Amino acid sequence: MAIPRMRTAQGVLDIIKADDPDTAVTLRHIRRLINTGKVPVTSVGTKKLVDADRVIEYIAAGDAPTESVPGSVRKVKP
User: Fold this and answer.
1) For the CA atoms of 48, 13, 56, 61, what is the dihedral angle to 10 degrees?
2) Burial of 55 per CB tally in 10 Å (0-12, 13-18, 19+)
3) Domain residue spans in the chain?
4) pLDDT digits (tens, 9 = 90+) for 34-65
5) Phi/psi of residue 38, each to 5°?
6) What pTM did the predictor assign?
7) CA distance 24 to 19
8) Helix axes 27-35 and 9-19, enclosed angle (nearest 10)
9) Cα 8 to Cα 51: distance, rounded to the nearest angstrom
């Protein structure tokens, strides 16, 4: 069993940039994935650690499209 590469958001970005220096992935995007719970997080003190490989897999797979709920848009007043 391989040991997961647990990193902070900046650490994950550093790994991605080492593989692809011209990546369009930003620190803000990785932090958003962490804060919205789209990738599993392990809290260690005040740090939030994630498995770098799982974050990279999530980004490579792409977000699932969100379904729009009928009637969720409010009517515009004339």
Assistant:
1) 110
2) buried
3) 6-61
4) 999 999 999 999 999 999 999 999 999 987 66
5) -75, -20
6) 0.76
7) 12
8) 130
9) 9
